Every structure is written in structure tokens, then in C-alpha cells.
Amino acid sequence: MASIFTKIINGEIPCYKIAENEHYFAFLDINPIAEGHTLVIPKKEVDYIFDLDEETLQGLITFAKKVARTIDGSLNPIRTGVIVEGLEVPHAHVHLIPIYTEHQPVALGHKIEVTKERMAEIAGIISEAFSE
Ligand code: 5GP
Question: What HEC string does the chain produce?
Fold first, then answer.
């Protein structure tokens, strides 16, 4: 059965899309721990990130870097943190977490409330700033 993230890529489940190319896709995490918390995934569905073939893994990191740089430039955090856990959704993904203050909690599960309107606004800000 297709993962929930494959369904998002295929448009079967809605998302706040950030960026996409032939092999990778980025969208806002539905349970953000910071405004702009983004997930970057390969379109190829593989559960464990370190089971990805070398080319796909390297491409994923390169794409994630482009998205992170775009978050840096458009939302102006101190920097963008990276977490890879992958225990909930069996489709490899990189969490990009904008860090706005020195003592901001940066841990998965530290969910914050963001309205749908603000999620859409943030997605618009990042996606409009993104270029390959
Ligand atoms: P992990 O597998 O690394 O623990 O985290 C999976 C992440 O996927 C969680 O942060 C969770 O909020 C996010 N997530 C789970 N289902 C959905 C979904 O349907 N849409 C979006 N945008 N994010 C999701």
C-alpha cells in the first residue's frame, strides 16, 4: 500500500506544498514544531533513509539544502535545523526546522499551534521564494 507521503505526492491527500522536482518533494509538516517546519522526501518510496541508493540520498540532501536556504532567506530564522527520525511514516523524510530563537525547543513532538491560514501563508512565502 502506498505511504501517506506517496499519496501526498500524487495529490490524493492535500498538503501545503513548498517545492517539487522530478525526484523530490517538499511540504509543510501538518504538526509543526516551528512555523515553516518542512518535510523533504524522495518520490521513490523507501522506508529507511539509509536504505536509499547513493544517488537518491545525495540528491535528497542537495534538494533539502535548497529548501533550507530558501527558508533561511524567506522566513529569516537564525538557521534551519535538520532532524531525521522516521519512526512514524515509513517513507524516508528529512525534517527542516527553522530556529528563530536560541532557546526554541527543537524536538519532534514539541508541537505548536499554527492556523490553516498561517500554514497557507507560510507555504506561499517559501514556495514563491524557491527556485532550483
Ligand atoms: P517521523 O516519521 O520522522 O517521526 O515524522 C513524521 C512526520 O510526518 C510527523 O512530524 C507528522 O506530523 C508528519 N505527518 C504525518 N502525516 C502527515 C500528513 O498527512 N501530512 C503532513 N503534511 N505531515 C504529516
Answer: CCCHHHHHHCCCCCCCEEEECCCEEEEECCCCCCCCCEEEEECCCCCCHHHCCHHHHHHHHHHHHHHHHHHHHHHCCCEEEEECCCCCCCCCCEEEEEECCCCCCCCCCCCCCCCHHHHHHHHHHHHHHCCC
Q: What separation in Å is there between the alpha carbon of 16 and the centre of ligand 1?
A: 12
Catalytic residues: 93
Give the number of the atom of ligand 1 that is nearest the alpha carbon of residue 13. Answer: 19
Instruction: State in Å: Cα 36 to ligand 1 middle.
Output: 14
Q: What pTM, to 2 d.p., does this model score?
A: 0.98
Report pLDDT digits (tens) over 17-59. Answer: 999 999 999 999 999 999 999 999 999 999 999 999 999 999 9
Domains and CATH numbers, the chain: 4-129 (3.30.428.10)
Determine the pLDDT at residue 68. Answer: 98
